[in-house]
Amino acid sequence: MTIWIPALPGQGPRYRELADAIANATASGELVAGAKLPPQRRLADALGVTVGTVTRAYALAEQRGVVTARVGSGTYVRGAGAPHPAFDHVRRAAPDSGIVDLSLSLPPPHPQREASLARAMQSIQHDPELLRAAIDYQPEAGLTWQREVIAGWLTTLGRPVPADELVINQGGMHGIFLSLSALLSPGERLAAERLTYPGLISGLQQLSLKSVAIAHDEAGIDIDALARAFEQQPFRALYVMPDCHNPTTARLSEAQRHALVALARERQFWLIEDDIHPQLDDEPVTPLYRLAPECTVTLFSVAKLLGGGLRVGAMRAPPVLHGRLTAALRAQSWMPPPLMASLVCRWIESGDADSLLQWQREELEWRFDRAMERLGEFSPRGHRGGFYLWLALPGELRTSHVVGQLQAQGVNVSTAESFCLGSVSAPQAIRVCISAAESREALEHALQVIAATLGDPDPMLWQTV
Questions:
Q1: Pairwise CA distance, residues 82 & 42, whole Å
Q2: Does 123 score more than 60 pLDDT?
Q3: DSSP run (H or E) holding 70
Q4: How confident is the model at residue 16 (pLDDT cuts 50, 70, 90)?
Q5: Region 346-368: what's the mean pLDDT?
Q6: So what's the pLDDT on residue 400?
Q7: What is the pLDDT of residue 461?
Q8: Segment holding 68, helix H or strand E
Q9: Which of 148, 284, 384, 411 has the greatest number of CB atoms lying within 10 Å of its CB?
Q10: E strands present in 310-406
């Protein structure tokens, strides 16, 4: 069978030439959308290069968004109109579909959210000064009173921060993009855990940044592996989720946090601390920005507290970075929408936000306890008050097989594939977002289905051959 074999000019690194050839062939139509690239070993033999060279080229092409790797299947051309692979999993089931969708990390539904939002909107409606400000330009970092309100609220949530260290933005994903834009130049490297937030992967691809995948385990990122990686492939910054890693729920111990910031100071790389998932349990931890304020950018958002549709967040950064961050913000959207930030601030000032969070904490604790009762025999990992559980599949079960069975019974969960950085292989595990169920009854039903499926799964195809 004939395979696609490009001509490499031999004027630079072979892996980069091959990645360029893939991009050029895709742009010219030589490789069409959906076409499968040759197996890495076969193409390596045809080109007279190592398998590692082809692997590196495919990974670079994937970072550029030209191809997408499917674990166990191969690497395929995406095409100009293909959806971004990092967000293929973000498809919420319709409310009337009969499906219990536990695939997305969403705050638990409650009518109080809509009622609180309505009261905040009415408050602004009757404030002429706020209405005028809502349709006017504002400073890139947000209005002073807005930053003061958000800083005060973060303090009550265990994240004390001076208002003048905050930059208001349009949520966690925007904060990631601003951080990457301000801290790295195209072609530079950012380190992150092997499994990481899909939004980060998307940002790296959009900005033509390289990634360095770092090993991690149940205790979080491997600090020794991080140090070794820096020696081999020096990076400008590390993206890390120290409080509740997404998707594995790992949390860094106090000792690990100190070791991490010591390494960052010694090797002089930036820390991008994702603090989007709030710490809603009682385990005391120290945020990284409190340990190393001079080299840490910390991302906050109201998405998991009030609602993701508000698109309001903030980032804490040392003063030396503020000029770069606000310049990046101005280039992308000029400023955060003053109306949305004012809406969130009025919600906070009314006390409704605190009442909602108190209910949410109690609800998440109930859901966690119930999930551990139902799924405890399968040793899921998570935190009481957290949004999701991480469950390594028992025995020789495969993720695709289990997810297919669950979907057939009306339950959606997340796989690890969307979280894989670069060419990292996906583990056989699922993320179960207990927060996302529309009700306790819906969650109970979904947990029963998951427990029954894992306890007595249908035979996998290979077992019947």
A1: 26
A2: yes
A3: strand 67-70
A4: confident
A5: 96
A6: 86
A7: 45
A8: strand 67-70
A9: 411
A10: 313-316, 389-392
Nearest alpha-carbon partner for 345 in 320, 380, 313, 315? 313
Residue type at position 368? F
Q: For the chain, first and last CA: distance in Å?
A: 28
Helix (H) or strand (E) holding 299: strand 296-301
CA distances in angstroms from 428 to 401, 417, 424, 463, listed in the order given: 10, 9, 13, 17
Quick one: pLDDT at residue 246? Answer: 95
Instruction: Give the C-alpha separation, 299 to 241, whole Å.
Output: 10
Which residues lie below 8 Å from residue 16, measured CB to CB, with a gap of 6+?
57, 60
Asked if 411 and 103 count as a contact pair (C-beta separation under 8 A), the reply is no
pTM for the full model? 0.81
> How far is residue 436 from each of residues 105, 190, 367, 387, 443, measured CA to CA in Å?
6, 31, 10, 8, 9
With beta carbons less than 8 A apart as the criterion, state whether 386 and 244 touch.
Answer: yes
pLDDT tens digits for range 130-150 = 999 999 999 999 999 999 999
Identify whether the C-beta of residue 342 lies closer than 8 Å to the C-beta of residue 132. Answer: no
What SS3 string covers 104-148?
CCCCCCCHHHHHHHHHHHHHHHCCHHHHHHHCCCCCCCCCHHHHH
Residues in a beta bridge with 76: 36, 68
Instruction: Using DSSP, state whether 262 is helix, strand or coil.
Output: helix
Q: Decide: 370 and 397 in contact? Cβ < 8 Å.
A: no
Bond from prior residue into 160 cis (ω within 30 degrees of 0)? no
What's the CA gap between 97 and 113, in Å, rounded? 23
Q: What is the pLDDT of residue 365?
A: 95
Identify the pLDDT of residue 89.
45
Q: Give the strand pairing for 100-101 and 411-412.
A: parallel
Residue in 322, 340, 339, 305 with CA at minimum distance from that of residue 153? 305
What is the tens place of the pLDDT at every residue in 82-112? 444 444 445 566 566 678 999 999 999 999 9
Rounded Cα gap, residues 455 and 453, in angstroms: 6
Write out 72-100 in H/E/C secondary structure: CCEEEECCCCCCCHHHCCCCCCCCCCCCE
Using CA atoms, how far apart are residues 236 and 56, in angstroms rounded to an integer?
20
